[in-house]
Structures are given as structure tokens and as C-alpha cells.
Amino acid sequence: MICRRVQQDGLAWFRLALLDQFPELEHRLWTRCGGVSQPPYEGLNLSFSVGDNPKRVSRNRSLIQQAMGVTELVSVGQIHSKNTLILSSQNRLHYDREIQGIDILITDIPGVGLLIKQADCQAVILYDPETRVIANVHCGWRGNVQNVLGQAVDQLREVFGCRPESLRAGISPSLGPCCAEFTHYREEFPEAFWTYQIKPMFFDLWRLSCDQLIAAGLRSEHIQVAALCTRCQAGDFFSYRRDRITGRNGTVVALHPS
Q1: Which residues contact 235 (CB under 8 A, 6 or more apart)?
Q2: Which pLDDT score is estimated for 93?
Q3: How is residue 256 annotated by DSSP?
Q4: Binning pLDDT at 50, 70 and 90, where does residue 91 land?
Q5: Which SS3 state, helix, strand or coil, does residue 169 take?
Q6: For helices 205-215 and 148-160, what crossing angle results, to 10°?
Q7: Which of 100, 112, 219, 253 might form a disulfide with 77, Cβ 3.0–4.6 angstroms?
Q8: pTM of the complete model beyond 0.90
């Protein structure tokens, strides 16, 4: 099974078999189930920027932090950029607020959870078992256009000495090819992306991200897609495409304290 669903204490999440091979790594692809937010953010909304009550969002974040056993949960204000925040054991900082304008999170510090929020965009987890460095990347279609995944791999190589062929990648639940409709794709996508069109105006962004990771040096067998569409599965996921005013799902990765 590529992706398995786990439910405990009223919360539910998915896990990827590829990443479950590493006992030192903790990852959870959170569903909307559980949590204390009320409609239209009902469930485990993890975003402060969608209009939800901040106290409820804080409570939801506390729930996932406690469930994962991480000492710190780091989140940023995502803007569909290639900007990177690196939390290194060499210059450790503590963040009690969201730094704005970041879409790539990287750390080698055990116990620090990296949270990416999404409602149809992909969260892409990267892990190097050789150097024990993790990244979590916010990748929507604008991120694909900018090749944010290639940027993340470059940062891992340049800052931490990671070899791309050693990296593992997991792609979260997100907008599937069944629902990724772009009526103005000729203006939004470069012509090279048009080959990812599976039928008129519908695109396979999962395959696009896989190909961008492979182009960055990853091996195809080291990449796994959850293959769960957020727009289709309303019971498990928030979706901006489906509901417009709604919450945000969360994907978290962390290194277990040694």
C-alpha cells in the first residue's frame, strides 16, 4: 500500500510507505478530521490566514504537535515563491510567529516539525538519510512554473552537502489530474508543460512534480505520490477549488530526537 490512513484520538492522517522505511523520520499528511474549528473551516484547520478564529487554529496546531511529539512546530506565511528558511543546528533560532514570504523549509534539528499548509497545492517532503536533513516544500502550480522543487534540491545540496540521488521525496494529497483544470493554461503555463495535459484543459501536476524532481537529480524509485485528490475527497481534505472559503490541510515532517 502506497499510502495508509491512520486514525487515533479523534485525529486522522496518511503515511507514505516510502518514508515509513526510516525509523528516525516522522511524517504525517494530516486530514481535516478532528480539531475544533467551526464551519466553513470545520475540523483541523491549520491556517491563521483564512478567517478562522486564531484561538481555534492554535488549538488545532497544539493537537498535532502533541500527537507527533515534536518540541517545536515551525510554519511560515506561504506566497508561492522560491524563498527558503533554513533552521540549522549551527545557528538555531526559535520562531514564535510566522515569518512571511517563505515556501521552502529545511532543517537538520531533531524534534522540529516543519509544517506546510495547503488546500489543493502539494506539500513535498524531502529527506536525505545520509545527512539526516529534511525539507518541506509548498508547491502549487505557480511553484511548478518557478521550479521550486529544483530550488529546494539545490539548497539541500549547497548548504548541507546532500546528494540528490540519495534524497527521498513524498508528495502530499493535492489536486489530482481528475480536477486540475486550467482554462487559461496558455497564459499560465510555459509551453513545455502543455504535454502534461491529460484531456482538454486538465493537467497531471503530480507527474509534473515527479519529473521536476527527477530533473533535479532524484531517482524515480525514490519518489512517491500519495495519489489522493483533495478536491474529490471532501470528507478528508479541505479544498479551495471545491469550497473557496475553507480551511487548510497540513503536512508535517520531523526528525525524531536521537
Answers
A1: 33
A2: 60
A3: P
A4: low
A5: strand
A6: 30
A7: 100
A8: yes
